[in-house]
């Protein structure tokens, strides 16, 4: 498994340069080093600040080529060339990856089959900016099967699966993305998706808000012909609400992040299923009896704790919110301040969506061999920047694994440079992404087909009935049989027999 190899077959030591104050300076140094071939890829990458859901996912072909895809002329087997990806030759491998994902995304495939005849997205021209993985390829191909035309780029510089991008290009998708894009290339790819001959997008599917932001800044007139924005991430949604509040949102937007079928499944169950995988692949650690501190007991923290407890770890939680803290108590977990266990715990996992939750003071006090990682969206939950001082040495021991070494020889094991552990070091379950992508597809269908005036220049949640529909599509996989309300019961509860079954304020 490539994720377990040491970079370039040997360990890299990097003494941090205290002068690297800014990201720009750091990137400039990295670029110079790359050019001089001093190192192929720096062990500490200070590239684009990760936004919202910004993640890096596991890809099997990440460091194959030093030539920027922008400098290559590529055509697919049908002579199509409106794309920019790492290597079109890997299309067959990527197609197999997509087919494997389809197997675990039965509900999205079912939605594709059910709606294919109606073509509810006929006439939709969707510009998309998401992670480019086998699972998102299933979404892209579903949208096309439902009648949409699309152009697509990556919402994150690291998360593209190159072979999947190749498969999409081979299938004549205009796709602009490769793993490990430079900052400037990232924005170039977005630009290529927005503007092209004979192309004027009328829908946006965004994850993080960078695409929407680009259109606002450079192509505001495009909004005139647009029907809506569908946004997936916490940060992107936050930006949209700010725009709406200041009267600057010129078209309707749908917040899919807060759909129940996204939040309760992606955040809770997906993390429960993937956190151990990320830790295992990078450290080979055994969990039984290990003391683990999980910072934050929201959805992600709950999933993380549940997985760890299942394998016999001794779990502690730190929380700021008394309700979540009490929930942890009820689940039999000790609630502590980080400072109480910082010297003794074996593993630290941040799951808060906050910043500097694990700071340099904590890191200074940890014991030799302590493992530190993050499951929250941004790479600032652990104050990684505070570890970039002259007194500490960084040693890259494996892909996504750095040892940070103190002057007395103490080593702290930092995973994925503080970025999302599961998306950087393992995979996330396709089934969960089927739920998330169904939600996105339905949000696009809803906005595209909504009668004039249903949605104004504001941010909306997906109608509850659609949330319930997404869930019901997935029940068939488990041969789960829903109970139907009797007429009498429906009357008693004041419900329609076909839903929605809960009010919007219900918390699940
Ligand atoms: N890794 C993944 O696959 C994945 C999936 C979904 C979401 N996320 C990200 O994970 C983060 C958490 O998501 P969530 O749905 O659990 O959010 P949430 O709001 O439900 O939970 C976060 C919890 O952290 C607590 N918290 C905040 N600051 C804290 C601090 N300083 N110390 C201790 N606790 C603190 C909050 O009180 C809250 O209970 C977000 O950044 C989200 O974007 C990651």
UniProtKB/TrEMBL annotation:
Entry keyword set: Hydrolase, NAD, One-carbon metabolism
Required cofactor(s): NAD(+)
EC number(s) on file: 3.13.2.1
Basic and acidic residues biased stretches: 67-76
Highest taxon of source: Eukaryota
Annotated S-adenosyl-L-homocysteine hydrolase NAD binding domain residues: 267-428
Xref: PROSITE patterns: ADOHCYASE_1, ADOHCYASE_2
Catalytic activity entry: S-adenosyl-L-homocysteine + H2O = L-homocysteine + adenosine
Chain residue ranges for the region called Disordered: 31-76
Pathway(s) the chain acts in: Amino-acid biosynthesis; L-homocysteine biosynthesis; L-homocysteine from S-adenosyl-L-homocysteine: step 1/1
Cofactor: binding details: Binds 1 NAD(+) per subunit.
InterPro entries given in the database record: Adenosylhomocyst_ase-like_sf (IPR042172), Adenosylhomocysteinase-like (IPR000043), Ado_hCys_hydrolase_NAD-bd (IPR015878), NAD(P)-bd_dom_sf (IPR036291), S-Ado-L-homoCys_hydrolase_CS (IPR020082)
Keyword Ribosomal protein: no
Alphabetical list of Gene3D superfamilies matching this protein: Adenosylhomocysteinase-like (3.40.50.1480), NAD(P)-binding Rossmann-like Domain (3.40.50.720)
Biased amino acid composition, Low complexity: 49-60
Leading EC class: hydrolase
Alphabetical list of PANTHER family matching this protein: ADENOSYLHOMOCYSTEINASE (PTHR23420:SF0)
Entry function: Catalyzes the hydrolysis of S-adenosyl-L-homocysteine to form adenosine and homocysteine. Binds copper ions.
Family membership: Belongs to the adenosylhomocysteinase family.
Record protein name field: Adenosylhomocysteinase
Source organism of this protein record: Clavelina lepadiformis
Lineage: Eukaryota, Metazoa, Chordata, Tunicata, Ascidiacea
